[in-house]
Design brief:
Blueprint: H1 5-22, E1 30-41, E2 44-54, E3 62-64, E4 67-75, E5 83-91, E6 106-108, E7 113-123, E8 131-144, E9 147-158, E10 173-174, E11 178-183, H2 194-202, E12 211-215, H3 216-222, E13 226-227, H4 236-241, H5 254-264, H6 266-281, H7 287-292, H8 294-298, E14 313-314, H9 320-331, E15 334-340, E16 346-351, H10 357-364, E17 378-383
Parallel strand pairs: 12-15
Antiparallel strand pairs: 1-2, 2-7, 3-6, 4-8, 5-7, 8-9, 10-11, 11-17, 12-17, 13-14, 15-16
Helix pairs in contact: 5-6
């Protein structure tokens, strides 16, 4: 009988952790950026957009007592001389907007939606030519049965986009039986459509037999799969499990590990942790990542991506296979999602049917896209036989 005590106790402990995980404070509200535009007139850049707040819960009512947008400008020079002014106007379906711009507490009822209209003006003379992106940091409060939650979501708004390369401007790099061409884009984010991005920057250069790759992190941020660490509340499992990972791992912090737990659940993380330890004892490395699932390898903790996403935790992309198939059909060439680093590690996460993955492994090993702030998330690969 005593032999059953340890397994039963472990099972009860895991069940308790799962129940505790499901009962953690959470708000059903979702915030989506829509219809953002940029205009320039008289030395002033005007950015306008809508923040849509939806409540998919059938009955829970959630208060939004505070909402503000903190703008940060990104560019290639000192931007301290620029002046930025921000105005937020409530656009509720059942309330009149206040002329003074004050955000009054609003209740988003179950299965209802409300909106906030954002206007940002940027001025300041010659420095205005050096700014290329506005990072709109939305900071808002959710208040309801779950308590009071401070939430934060950054939205990159491109103010200027690089012109797509023409055929006569392309500077191909020679590779192992192939040529590669990194393609510079604007700072990608949730306001973009991924297939439209591929069309804009790659389509004029395409030839039959080419393969177009996009990094897994750029695709993930387009899909909105990133979050600020302040939105996470690491539990005891995250704080304990993260300590055994190498300091450079994205799972070596409590917030990075909690991100994985939120994705796959505490039971799988505990099982992967124990299984990985046993596999390591018999000489099999990387057991945790195999058992925890693909997202364990794809999570990028802060500093792991290009600014301003370096302040966030970026998850891996979703629906990778279907995206590659749709993009390939739209462009008429093979498309792949890749994860590449400066150590020569190349992983093809997904690719369209018939794609030559071996060609990609050779072509991308030197990491032509780079891992710094090059903003070249697309790489066009052309076989030497083409």
């Amino acid at each position: 009988m005593s032999l059953l005590i340890a397994p039963l106790a472990l099972g009860a402990g895991v069940a308790w952790l799962e129940a505790r995980h499901r009962m953690r404070p959470a708000s059903p509200l979702r915030l989506t950026a829509r219809d953002w535009t940029v205009t320039s007139q008289g030395g002033v850049l005007r950015v306008k957009g809508v923040l849509e707040i939806s409540n998919p819960h059938p009955s829970m009512e959630v208060f939004v007592p505070e909402l503000q947008v903190v703008p940060t400008l990104l560019g290639k020079a000192d931007l301290s001389g620029l002046t930025v002014s921000t105005r937020i106007q409530a656009d509720h379906p059942d309330d009149e907007a206040r002329a003074d711009g004050y955000w009054a507490v609003y209740i988003v009822k179950g299965r209802k939606t409300t909106r906030a209209r954002v206007s940002i003006e940027i001025s300041g003379g010659e420095s205005l030519e050096q700014v290329d992106t506005l990072w709109a940091d939305v900071q808002w409060i959710n208040y309801g049965p779950f308590g009071r939650l401070a939430r934060r979501q950054g939205i990159p708004v491109p103010l200027r986009c690089p012109e797509p390369l023409r055929v006569d401007q392309a500077s191909w790099q020679s590779g192992d039986g192939c040529s590669v061409l990194p393609l510079k884009t604007h700072l990608l984010g949730p306001l973009d459509d991924p297939i439209d991005v591929l069309r804009r920057y790659a389509e004029p250069l395409l030839q039959p037999g080419d393969v177009l790759t996009i990094g897994e992190t750029p695709l993930a941020v387009i899909q909105g799969h990133y979050q600020h660490p302040s939105e996470l509340e690491p539990g005891p499992i995250a704080r304990l499990a993260c300590r055994v990972f190498h300091p450079t791992s994205s799972l070596a912090t409590a917030c990075g590990m909690q991100t994985l737990i939120d994705l796959v659940g505490p039971t799988r993380v505990i099982a992967a942790w124990l299984g990985g330890l046993l596999m390591k004892l018999v000489g099999i490395p990387g057991g945790f990542y195999r058992l925890a699932g693909d997202q364990a390898r794809l999570i990028d903790d802060i500093t792991g991506t290009t600014p301003p996403y370096d302040q966030t935790i970026v998850l891996g992309p979703q629906r990778s296979g279907s995206f590659c198939a749709q993009a390939s059909q739209a462009l008429g060439i093979d498309v792949a999602i890749v994860d590449v680093n400066d150590l020569g590690r190349v992983k093809v996460l997904a690719s369209s049917s018939g794609c030559d993955d071996a060609l990609l492994m050779r072509a991308l090993k030197p990491n032509p896209a780079g891992n710094a702030n090059q903003r070249t998330p697309l790489v066009l690969v052309r076989s030497a036989c083409a």
